[in-house]
Amino acid sequence: MDNILEIKGLEVDIAMKAGILHAVRGVSFCIASGETLCLVGESGSGKSLTALSILGLLPPNASRRTNVATFVGQDIAHLSERQMQDLRGRSIGMIFQDPMMAFNPTMTVGRQLEEVYLRHIKRDKKAARAKAVELLSRVGMTEPEGRMTQFPHQLSGGLRQRAMIAMALMCEPKLLIADEPTTALDVTMQAQVLSLLKSVQASFGVSILFITHDLGVVAAIADRVAVMKAGRVVEIGDVYQVLKSPRDDYTRALIAAVPKAKPLIASQARSVIGSVGHV
Fold first, then answer.
1. What are phi and psi of 228, to 5 degrees?
2. Per-residue confidence band for 1, with pLDDT thresholds at 50, 70 and 90
3. Which domain-ending residue is among 172, 195, 218?
4. Rounded mean pLDDT of the chain?
5. CA dihedral sign, ordered 212, 94, 36, 21
6. Does the residue 257 lie in any domain?
7. Taking Cα atoms as reference points, which of 211, 246, 239, 213 lies closest to residue 224?
8. Is residue 278 part of a domain?
9. Cα separation, 189 vs 195, whole angstroms
10. Domain C-terminal end among 172, 198, 219
11. CB within 8 A of 6, min separation 6: which ones?
12. Across residues 17-45, what is the average pLDDT?
């Protein structure tokens, strides 16, 4: 399969009062068309910064360098901010970790979904509304017409996450970046969100970069997994190989740290999703 995203030698430095923090150091990976790659590691390992650097959403005190950064063959390392704005939401969708913080609390959910469509597709508002209602329905929202008029705070955490996924899909992107989308959810809701993402992937043929610290989630959704430690990728490979026969001491330590009850999450996710194949 052709690679939809290729990153080589990614470096992210953050200017601090005490000096330069080398937050991401020499990270390299690729994602094939239709594939799910999980970035896994403990908090502070550089997972989210890696994802944000791809979209050019780093904080002002951070700088990015990379040897290669291509998306569908296009060099994205040297795009202007205007060019990146055209890419974000249109070709690359982002599912943020906390949808309550990502949504604008002063705007209805429907208006925010429509805004993405109108910015990139250049159709009329009627078409944008129809697309939003369709996607809210497809991600399992009951009464999608009514949900369009609600504000983010009127939705439960699980419904907000579904609305966030719908917004990321408004322009049918080729790549979804999901930054710990199941972290704040209970086990049952985690399994439902994972099932939804697998269904979305099958329907839209989208590739997914999935960021998590949860190895149960990795087992349920990943095709391949990249393990990050202190800003570096220490191991990358097929999910079955990495989880069953890890080569790096840090990967082995992560697996050993999983509570004994943790496999139930992967088991429940698989029961909702169906057969995951190689896991």
1. -110, 140
2. low
3. 172
4. 87
5. negative
6. yes
7. 239
8. no
9. 10
10. 172
11. 30, 68, 69, 70
12. 93
